Amino acid sequence: MQPKIVKLDEYLVVDEPFYQAGGDEVEIFESSYRNGLPVLLKGPTGCGKTRFMEYMAWRLQRPLIT
């Protein structure tokens, strides 16, 4: 079986998604990203975890694969 080659450019978030920060989560995430620290997002269904990750992927110019 051949491994599937995925082009990460296909998963870049091109347009800025709407996200309104509720605190300092953006700064905390950016600091964690710069320092190579993992982040655990936790919350009930519909609280905005995926939207936050979409926004951060756009902001940091990283691919988002969900």
Give a verbal description of the structure.
- By secondary structure, this protein is an all-alpha fold.
- It has one domain (9-60).
- Helix content is 33%, strand content 0%.
- It has 2 helices and no strands.
- It has helices spanning 25-34, 49-60.
- The two termini are 23 Å apart.
- The mean pLDDT is 95.
Topology summary:
Layout: H1 25-34, H2 49-60
Q: State the major sheet.
A: none
H/E series, N to C?
A: HH
Number of domains: 1
Overall shape: it is: globular
Bin the helical content. 25-40%
Spans of at least 5 consecutive residues whose pLDDT stays below 50 are: none
Beta-strand percentage?
under 5%
Keywords:
single chain, 2 helices, mainly alpha, 66 residues
Short synopsis of the structure:
The chain has helices at residues 25-34, 49-60. The chain has one domain (9-60). With 66 residues, the protein is mostly helical.
